[in-house]
Backbone:
């Protein structure tokens, strides 16, 4: 049981391209989250979802789009990638308030 | 505005000694706090948490202390082991939200 699977693990693309990062969970947790990790900033929330078809913005949502048509999937799309979006992206799931979130192993994205 | 701060980017400790990692927060509404550990090329893993109704929580070698008046929490690892070498993030949340705010992380190195 993989729990949370992120794909791809590594991605290199060019500015202006659209890129989608995938996140799949097998736990049926209601909540799913996308974070980016950057030096000096720690983990910052991009978007989150409380259930299928319910999404909301986090701290740094600009330039990103999410969808959640199925409970187990939560893709993150960069519609027109910029160099400032070079980062490590983590997907996480959670069962509710005051419950730990569980993280995937991340996607390292480089935008040239 | 960094609501959760980890002012020490790095810490080195001898094996067998105590490691103390610190975290300060500014938002008095935070009522649940967590510590995560992160190894390179992996996602953060949950370590220990504490509710604001407590001032201490213990789990094996790991103890988290919460000082609400000082808006400060700390993670104690006793005894420290080389396998504890990782980046440690503190996180906080409050009633009415499912979002966590993370600190910038402290890199712990335990020397054999």
Residues:
């Amino acid at each position: 049981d993989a729990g949370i699977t992120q794909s791809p693990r590594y991605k290199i693309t060019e500015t202006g391209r659209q890129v989608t990062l995938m996140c799949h969970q097998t736990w049926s947790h209601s909540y799913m989250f996308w974070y980016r990790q950057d030096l000096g900033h720690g983990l910052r929330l991009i978007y989150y979802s409380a259930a299928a078809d319910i999404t909301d913005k986090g701290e740094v949502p600009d330039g990103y789009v999410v969808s959640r048509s199925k409970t187990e999937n939560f893709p993150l799309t960069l519609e027109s990638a910029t160099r400032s979006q070079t980062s490590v992206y983590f997907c996480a799931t959670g069962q509710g308030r005051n419950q730990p979130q569980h993280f995937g192993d991340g996607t390292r994205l480089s935008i040239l | 505005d960094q609501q959760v701060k980890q002012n020490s980017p790095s810490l080195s400790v001898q094996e067998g000694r105590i490691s103390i990692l610190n975290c300060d927060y500014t938002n008095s509404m935070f009522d649940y706090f967590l510590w995560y550990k992160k190894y390179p090329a992996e996602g953060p893993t949950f370590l220990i948490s504490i509710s604001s109704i407590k001032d201490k929580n213990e789990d094996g070698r790991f103890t988290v202390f919460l000082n609400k008046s000082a808006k400060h929490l700390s993670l104690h690892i006793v005894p420290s082991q080389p396998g504890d070498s990782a980046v440690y993030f503190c996180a906080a949340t409050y009633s009415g939200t499912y979002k966590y705010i993370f600190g910038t992380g402290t890199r712990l190195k335990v020397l054999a």
